[in-house]
């Protein structure tokens, strides 16, 4: 799939990206018609139940990429290279190739790592940048770029990463004004999460936007449904019907 089209299409409509980690959700997203699926290392939290993304391995990413690739037939799949797996250009290349083999169309690199990004692009591997809050290395998850020096560093990183030729840049948890300044300055489309409305696109973690974990309440998060409640209601109904002998009824029984 031609991911350079995203760079060329900057400004021609918002990019919609959501995460997926398994076959069925990937199939639904594919059918719903979004622009990009991200197999994010956020799976460390929302699938595996860890506090952060730091224990996610290449094996985890390969497993989930393979599952997503079975479900998404037309939507490009971008996959995070997890922590410590892109320390050198050689490592990054080797791991990116493993992810492409598993079904990825491009990889996401957290932070400004020019040698790594350059090496991947030189080998024709599409790269999505990721700046602002960097969960793989951040001591805590908080807004980034509020202070002028931190904002300037993120801005300069965005210019550098853009110049290398990434096909898009995720901007996570930064003030809207900074995201706007970056979006206007770079050639790659920006995809925001907690970065306001001026980005060229938006991404959310699918579990969050579906309302599976009601205890996760960052300011940027809008829940589009409440699957937590819907699932609990369905489970409660099943429990009640089994207990009172209503299920299985004749309609759901082989004779
Ligand atoms: O891992 C992830 O899901 C991400 C998104 C939050 C952009 O990096």
Describe the structure.
This protein has 255 residues and is of the alpha/beta class. It has 2 domains: 4-224, Phosphoenolpyruvate-binding domains (TIM Barrel, Alpha-Beta Barrel); 226-255, no CATH class. It is 41% helix and 15% strand. Strands 1-2-3-4-5-6-7-8 form an 8-stranded parallel β-barrel, surrounded by 6 helices. Helix 2 links the parallel strand 1 (15-19) and strand 2 (36-39). The longest helix is centred in the middle third of the chain and has 17 residues, at 148-164. The relative contact order is 0.12. Residues 19, 38, 40-42, 80, 170, 172, 193, 203, 205 line the site of 3-methyl-2-oxobutanoic acid.
CATH class call of the largest domain: Alpha Beta
| Largest beta-sheet characterization | 8 strands, parallel, barrel
User: Topology as H/E string?
Assistant: HEHEHHEHEHEHEHEEHH
Overall, the morphology is globular
Give the N-to-C terminal Cα separation: 50 Å
Regions with little confidence, pLDDT below 50 for 5+ residues: none
């Amino acid at each position: 799939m031609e991911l350079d089209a995203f760079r060329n299409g900057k400004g021609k409509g918002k990019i919609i990206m959501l995460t997926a980690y398994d076959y069925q959700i990937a199939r639904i997203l594919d059918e719903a018609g979004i622009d990009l699926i991200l197999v994010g290392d956020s799976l460390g939290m929302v699938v595996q139940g860890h506090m952060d993304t730091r224990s996610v391995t290449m094996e985890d990413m390969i497993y989930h990429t393979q599952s997503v690739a079975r479900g998404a037939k037309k939507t490009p799949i971008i996959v995070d290279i997890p922590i410590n797996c892109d320390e050198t250009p050689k490592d990054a290349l080797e791991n990116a190739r493993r992810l492409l083999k598993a079904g990825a169309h491009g990889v996401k690199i957290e932070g400004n790592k020019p040698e790594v990004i350059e090496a991947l692009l030189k080998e024709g591997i599409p790269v999505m940048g990721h700046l602002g809050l960097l969960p793989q290395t951040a001591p805590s998850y908080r807004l980034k770029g509020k202070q002028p020096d931190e904002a300037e560093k993120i801005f300069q990183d965005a210019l550098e990463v853009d110049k290398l030729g990434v096909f898009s840049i995720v901007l996570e948890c930064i003030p809207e004004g900074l995201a706007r300044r970056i979006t206007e300055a770079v050639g790659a489309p920006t995809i925001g999460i907690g970065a306001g409305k001026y980005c060229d696109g938006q991404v959310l973690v699918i579990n969050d936007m579906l309302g599976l974990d009601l205890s996760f309440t960052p300011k940027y998060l809008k829940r589009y449904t409440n699957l937590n409640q819907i699932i609990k209601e369905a489970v409660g109904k099943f429990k009640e019907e089994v207990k009172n002998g209503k299920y299985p009824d004749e309609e759901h029984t082989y004779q």
